[in-house]
UniProtKB/TrEMBL annotation:
Residue ranges annotated for the Signal transduction histidine kinase internal region domain, each copy included: 358-435
Protein name: Histidine kinase
MF (Gene Ontology): phosphorelay sensor kinase activity
GO cellular component, one term: membrane
A Pfam family per the record: His_kinase
Keyword Transferase listed: yes
Upper taxonomic lineage: Bacteria, Pseudomonadati, Bacteroidota, Flavobacteriia, Flavobacteriales
Origin superkingdom: Bacteria
Assigned keywords, A-Z: Kinase, Membrane, Transferase, Transmembrane, Transmembrane helix
Organism: Lutibacter oricola
Residue ranges crossing the lipid bilayer per the database entry: 12-31, 303-321
Amino acid sequence: MKFLLRVKKHQQYLYISIILIVIFFLGNALITPKITLVTENLIEDIVIGNLKSKQNIVDFEFNQLNSFLIDSEKIIANSEKITDNNLKEKLLFTNDLAVSNNNINNSFVCFLVDEKIEDIVFSENANTEYKREIINLIKVLKLINFETSINDVVNKDGNVYNRKIIAKELANGKIVVTGYDINLLSFWKYFSENYKGEGGYTVLTDTKGICVLHPETDFIGKPLNSFFENISINKVLNNNLGRTNFGVNQKELIKDKVTSEFLGLEVLRYYNSVKVGKSYIILIVSFPVDIYLKESLVNIKRYFSWISMLAFCIFMLLLAVSRFQLRKEFSENLKIVKEKDHLVNTNEKYQRENAVLQLNQLKKKMNPHFLFNSLNSLHVLIDSNKELSQKFVLKLADVYRYLLDDRSGNLISVKNELEFLKQYIFLQEIRFKSSLKVSIVDNSNLQSLIKKIPFLSLETLVENAIKHNEFTKQKPLFIDIIINSKEIEVVNNYNPRKTKDENSHHIGLNYLKNSYEYYQINSFKTEVIDDKFKCFLPLLS
């Protein structure tokens, strides 16, 4: 009897619970189709994102392997004012750099006079059979106009090579031929270990349909005719002409639904082309339809149902428990939870900012682009000014000694930073000559020199000015570094490049901003006034 009376007394809560259950299932029935549609669109976006990522990786890696050939072409194009011996030395130096890459096996440089081989030099690791093949190939090439290039896939002794060769006639009538072999099996091992992408497997072919990369290495070096039964190579090349990555408009993508010989499953296969030097390679990415799309959709629906049911049960439980809890106790518990979340978020923010500082410092220490430019400048100096080139080497050594020096924090004294900056400016002035003019003005006392600033901050600002502004000998880039008692002001004339660098992510300025925020200094700022870019670096005690 007491139970029935209690039920009657609280029947309003029973009605509320029934209404909530009905609303839950109605809402679930209405929302599920929309969730399905949104999920399909999200998965399509993920697929497109994976395609862009894979293409960018292929673009970077293959153009890196092709860069040595481009360097050789530039050297030959600018060979009119140098002797044949100097040309030979420069080409051999470039080939030595190429062979230092673990994925490049052989290289050679050859000079022809009156269709006869005058001089030919092979890399140290080139065997007799390779030398014989190249010599025979050059004899065949003699029937062709010597303004040509070769980019073929060659099968040899269980290995597959991408053979790259250029031949050009010099002003003195001689013909120079140079090239190297890329070991595609070795490159696939490197590629698969460093880029373990998800959501599909990648296949590359040349414009003849010969396989360059494939997860099953037995296919490498063989024609993949089955991949182009429905989609021709010309269609892929014409569709992607003038575009460097998968188009923003998804309707422009070339795709085909086929059964994969490699997986034995139905796959959705996307086609695009990547420009490597003067030629193209065909990029094919296959996504298993059932595994990648259908299963993902089913899982998302199931997870959504579980989460919805769990949320509903928790809500009902909270509704029942709330009648037996005091509001004050609930408020206090909620406050404790919020404070705990705040502490967790604060700790995560500190760790994230600290990681950003370390990452940027490491990137600055290991800057391959700066080293590459410095070596190019040194390469030119060695022939023109040996005394200056020796000084250049010493300065470069001082710079990298400073960069690689272990330090516990990311702050450095103004004095040490200025000494390093002078070495760095020397290297850049050798590279840009009269196009770059840097001045350092000290308006402070000696106390300012012992104060601290973020490590590599001055070099970062000078490098940013060089990287993001257009300048010539007629319109040089002026950079003024003014040391005051409380701050350092870095000023340069502002003439931004018309074409922005897609690889630039403003890491340098973000590094400086995060460094000062880490030490709770908010006076760091940048501004553009009267066609001048100004940055103010506060000095830390």
